[in-house]
Structure formats: structure tokens, C-alpha cells
Design goal:
Blueprint (H helix, E strand, L loop, with lengths): L2 H32 L9 H5 L1 E3 L2 E3 L1 H18 L7
Antiparallel strand pairs: 1-2
Length: 83
């Protein structure tokens, strides 16, 4: 196994854990929202954050990362979308 393959396995493990946590958070959201335990809806992202850039991020960190990516893409002339 090469060093690159090892890094890929580590990244895949982190993403798999994130997805498992998301499943549990989805169940918690269904229970809380369905039982009327909150005045405003609870979202999965509020509990587990967002996956971007190879890691889980909170709402503010994700917003800043997205903004940086948009500015970086703007400088390259890349809209980030498909042609």
C-alpha cells in the first residue's frame, strides 16, 4: 500500500463516519420535529455540520470556506458549474 492509498483510506473512513453520524442525526431530527419538541424545525446540518474540503465543518466555517472557494474560482474565471 502506498502513502497516497493510505491517505485515501483515512479520508474514506472519516467520510463514512460522517455519513453514519448523519443517519443518527436524521433520526433525532424526525423525533424532535415530529413530537413538536421545538418551535422551529431542527435540521441535520445543525447537528452534524457540512462535509466539504475533506472534513466536517460547522455552519460558519462552511460559509467561510464556500466564500473562499467562490473567490478563488472567480479569480480563475471558473464558475464551478458544468459547461
Amino acid at each position: 500500500m502506498t502513502y497516497g492509498e493510505l491517505l485515501d483510506h483515512i479520508a474514506a473512513h472519516g467520510y463514512r463516519e460522517y455519513l453514519e453520524t448523519r443517519k443518527r442525526a436524521q433520526l433525532a431530527c424526525w423525533i424532535c420535529n415530529g413530537a413538536g419538541m421545538r418551535t422551529s424545525p431542527l435540521y441535520v446540518e445543525d447537528l452534524v455540520g457540512y462535509w466539504a474540503g475533506g472534513k466536517a465543518m460547522g455552519k460558519l466555517e462552511y460559509w467561510q470556506w464556500t466564500k473562499e472557494q467562490a473567490l478563488r474560482n472567480k479569480g480563475r474565471g471558473d464558475s464551478g458549474g458544468h459547461p
